[in-house]
Amino acid sequence: MRIGASLLLLNGVCYQSYRWEMLRPLGSLQNAVSHLEQYQIDEIAIIRPVRESDTNESLLKDITALQQLITTTPISFGGGVRDMGILEQLTSMPVERLILSSAFFNANQSLLKEAAALYGHQAIQAMIPFKKVNGQYVVYHCSEAEFTPAEALIQPEFFQTYANEIVLYDVANEGVGNTFDFEALDVFSSLTGFRHEQLIIGGGVGADSIKSAYSNNLAAVSIENRVLHKEYSIEALRHA
Amino acid sequence: MHKCQKCLYDTQHPFHLTLNDKICSGCITHEEKNTLDWSEREQKLLEIISPYRKDTKAYYNCVVPVQGDAEDYYVLNIVLSLGLRPLVVAVNDYFKNNIGWYNLHNLITHFDCDSFVFNPDMTVYKELIRTTLRKYNHMLWPALALHSAYPVHIAKARKIPLIIWGQNQALEQVGKYSHCDQIEMSQWSRQEHDILNCSLETVIGNGAQLNTRHLNYYRYPNIKALIKSRVRGLYLSNFYRWDPLQQNHSMMEFGFQPEVNNSSFDPYERAGSSVYYQMHDLLKMQRVGYRKIRDHLSREIRHQRISRNSAIHIEKYYSEARVDIDSFFAWLDVTESGKRWFVENRLQKVSHLLASDNSGEWVSPELPEDITALLDKQKASEKQFITFGKGV
Questions:
Q1: Which of A237, B16, B180, B336 is the most exposed place for a label (fewest CB within 10 A)?
Q2: C-beta separation of A16 from A8 below 8 A
Q3: What is the spatial distance between Cα A145 and Cα B337, in angstroms, rounded to a whole number?
Q4: Chain A residues with CB inside 8 Å of B227's CB?
């Protein structure tokens, strides 16, 4: 199982997100990536938290930061990737995998086909930001800026056709350790038709979550805020 | 640029900050101080340090890095009350005045702790200061690099498992973390916050006249070696309700001597430095557009000892305080023409604040009673730039 980290990038600067409600600054993208490399992380997901709105200016700053990035660690990139132009720009950058969310919920077949053609099917990850409300799982549709019941939004055939892996992101527990909702695994596995071995979890991931992730045979974990909060966090989590 | 509606910071703060409903992340995090159960948090600290206290094999179980600041008195007092066995480690930044040396020696004498002071090679040190002045308009980078790395080298070399720091500046100023995150010392955090995201290699590049084998202690120890040693750095501000003005004031009972300065009302933080409220403060203004007084006032707004409107007025007042830079350039062995070049090319925004000396009448502005009640017995320093201070 891969141990990964996720970094939120907005206007060229990294941020931390707490329960999808509050952003705190983190700092320089290069500094964060360089240190995650030293701490021997397996992969880094750089996500633009463009939940409600995006601007060309913001996208340009983030793409510039990405262009200047020096790293040998595999990078996944996503957030606001909603047209072909952006896809083509990203091919010249150190990005190995794409994380798409709205494209799957909108069933944007042309974008997904182009992404698969440019990057390969193995490089496409579908992100599902979710939380549980009154016993029901709802999913955040980024371009619509709203939560929708999961069953209404997920079209399994699109996920199976175009995604290699799914990132299940627990927004309610984001930024808080050891609280990832593991009950969601079987729910989304059933909805999407993806096996546990094709699932990545993020949001509320800590040492206990990683133990559970191992026992559930998941593909990877993606640790958010706390990955840089302590010197030995990654080394300790790897041996969790 | 967007401003916080509560304190004096804006989104151009060098640590970055976020605004959530027009209130900055620093103010939001500060509110945790009023809601967290601090006795529970102290209990968490006791659980963390318990195995280290029980281990009696090593004579020292923690390093306490100090500068002779009032905060160091506070930290050491807590460390001893927790039953830890500290080794006090200081780095001589060569900027201490007579009050600075007094406070450092009094700290060690009063608390009766084992200690030592590292004196970096002066030639290397000054060359690094000249380099960082040229490159970044920053003069404290070498001192900050040493203060944040040398204690870690000592802890690793002597197998001392803990390093106890006071406040985490990024948390206190811009709320970069929650207190509940229990952020610990890390190489990433040091690079991001302590040394301006400039590694030693970036600083020296190919312009500094330095042999890299003299620079070991300016670098953080190798991470792989550190992982083996498991040296861990804790911030007490995660476990105790941190109120610098209040707690620093209380350190006078241990003999701490506050120093009056004309750049801030706070006589405790970095008292005893020949540069902190002078050249360093001026350079900060040039680089980021505000002086230390803004940090102090934003802190006091959050502690509800001053209103935002009053703070705005007082910031304007202190921001006009004149600064003598001649003594710093003389200490740095810079020629008159070199100093003139620097003033003309690097201090354009603040040239109106230059003064030939710090003497002259200075009248403190009117401050709220909640603040003045915590300020007393401040003295002016008598001698600056004392290389090696002796005695208490």
A1: B336
A2: yes
A3: 60
A4: 231-232, 235
Give chain A positions within 8 Å (CB) of B188. 31-32, 35, 228
The shortest C-alpha distance from B183 to chain A (Å) reads: 5
pLDDT digits (tens, 9 = 90+) for B226-283: 888 889 999 999 999 999 999 999 999 999 999 999 999 999 999 999 999 999 999 9
Whether pLDDT at B72 is above 60: yes
Give the alpha-carbon dihedral of B187, B193, B198, B204, to 10 degrees: -80
ipTM confidence: 0.90
**Amino acid B187: pLDDT:** 94
What's the one-letter identity of residue B7?
C
Tokens 């808080």: give the residue: A176
Q: Which of A230, A235, A238, A239 to mutate to test the interface with B (most CBs of B within 10 A)?
A: A230
Residue B206's pLDDT is what?
67
pLDDT surpassing 60 at residue A162: yes
pTM for the structure as a whole: 0.94
Are the C-beta atoms of B156 and B11 separated by less than 8 Å? no
B183/A229 Cβ within 8 A: yes
Cα–Cα distance for residue pair B183/B235, rounded to 1 Å:
7
Hey, what amino acid is at B379?
K
Average pLDDT over residues B326-341: 95
DSSP secondary structure code for residue A68 in this structure: T
Q: How far apart are CA B366 and CA B105, in angstroms?
A: 33
- The residue of chain A with its CA nearest to that of B18 is A24
* Interface touch A235/B227, C-beta < 8 Å: yes
A121 CA to centre of own chain: 17
> Which residue of B188, B197, B198 to mutate against A (max A Cβ within 10 Å)?
B188
- Rounded to a whole number, what is the distance in Å from the CA of B270 to chain A's nearest CA? 26
Q: At residue B360, does pLDDT exceed 70? A: no
pLDDT in tens, B165-223: 999 999 999 999 999 999 999 999 999 999 989 989 888 886 667 877 789 999 999 98
Which residues are CB-neighbours of B249 under 8 A, at least 6 positions away? B268, B374, B375
Nearest CA in chain A to B182: A229
How close does chain A come to B180, measured CA to CA in Å? Answer: 9
Residue pair B53/B80 in contact by the 8 Å Cβ criterion: no
